[in-house]
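thought: fold this chain, then report.
action: predict
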Amino acid sequence: MITTVLNRVIIRLESDDNYDENIVSEYVQTITDRLCLRLGVTEDTFPELFNSIAVDATVKMWRRTYYEGISSEGAANITTSFVDDILSEYADEISAYLENTANTSGTDKVVHFK
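observation:
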């Protein structure tokens, strides 16, 4: 799973001449670790559907490398601001997954006869 996410991130960053594969690999691990914690899964059971979120969040993490911690910045007509939690943008998807998982796991289907 990590390799798949890393390969997809590198494809997106290929136009960026300055990316460092070792740092990007560390970012992929950090994002997937955080997603695993939020989803209540391990790397072995990481839902494949969340690979795209891991890729998006890793690219965002890379692109803010030199601006880490900035919450707002302005100069002339350009304004820069970052969210504190990169994964907060995906809170709806995470919540929906957790809700669907809770609704489908642990409930045995039972047939009742009258």
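thought: worth noting. The chain is about 50% helix and 5% strand.
final: tokens above.
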